[in-house]
Design goal:
There is one protein chain. The chain is built from two helices and 13 strands. The termini are far apart. The mean pLDDT is about 95. It has a six-stranded antiparallel β-sheet, covered by helices on one side. A five-stranded antiparallel β-sheet has the order 9-8-11-6-13, with no helix packed on it. The protein has a two-stranded antiparallel ribbon with strand order 3-4. With about 180 residues, the protein is mainly β. The radius of gyration is 16 Å and the shape is globular. It has one domain: Jelly Rolls (Sandwich), CATH 2.60.120.10. Helices cover about 5% and strands about 40% of the residues. The chain binds dtdp-4-keto-L-rhamnose. Dtdp-4-keto-L-rhamnose binds next to strand 5, strand 6 and strand 11.
């Protein structure tokens, strides 16, 4: 597993080693010992999620507040997405900073987004399937969101014209970064 740093020190890219032979290929998509060594602490994954999206679908920016804050280990198993993590911890030196990484079935990259970050992704291919592990269970009451095109965050979403972005109603109506309830 290749571990690659990003512009945000706690957000990491994991690139599995792929073993190919005449039958096809094999990879470890998750190895607790390798993962926890890279992250530096124990990470209790308790839920796995899987979603399917059409081109231009943008899910996010989402998070859950404590005590249900979620770390997420995310990847695309079909198609291509552009994935974003935003540091929303007021006490952090990188508060309000974001990183974007392309995740695809082809590059097999995974992104570790710790608790305290908002997360979103847009589908760049015709369709995508997206799978992720989370460190806390889904809890509707703890859900928070920030609007995807917040001017203060100024996330440089790629390729898709704004008019073609496909949003859930709740995401279109999400609060600005300035108004959202975030992490203290
Ligand atoms: C996230 C989630 C949703 N649901 C339900 C609620 C709702 O009726 C339906 C669809 O939910 P959503 O519209 O919130 O799905 P979606 O927009 O895909 O939400 C996800 O977006 C990405 C960016 C994340 O980071 C995730 O943590 C999660 O917030 O699924 C669950 O039952 N369990 C869950 O863990």
């Amino acid at each position: 597993m290749n571990v690659i740093a990003t512009a945000l020190p706690e957000v990491l890219i994991f690139e599995p080693r792929v073993f190919s032979d005449d039958r096809g290929w094999f990879m470890e998509s998750y190895n607790q010992a390798v993962f926890e060594k890279a992250v530096g602490y124990a990470v209790p994954f308790v839920q796995d999620n899987h979603s399917y999206s059409k081109r231009g679908a943008l899910r996010g920016l989402h998070f859950q507040l404590p005590p249900y804050a979620q770390g997420k280990l995310v990847r695309a198993t079909q198609g291509r997405v552009w994935d974003v993590a935003v540091d929303i911890r007021k006490s952090s030196a990188t508060f309000g900073k974001w990183v974007g990484v392309e995740l695809s079935a082809e590059n097999r990259r995974q992104l570790w987004i710790p608790p305290g970050f908002a997360h979103g992704f847009i589908t760049l291919s015709e369709t995508s399937e997206f799978m992720y592990k989370t460190t806390a269970l889904y809890n509707k009451e703890s859900e928070g969101a920030i609007v995807w095109n917040d001017p203060q965050l100024a996330i440089q979403w790629p390729e898709i014209p704004a008019a073609d972005v496909l949003l859930a109603e709740k995401d279109a109506a999400a609060p600005s970064f300035k108004d959202a309830r975030v992490f203290d």
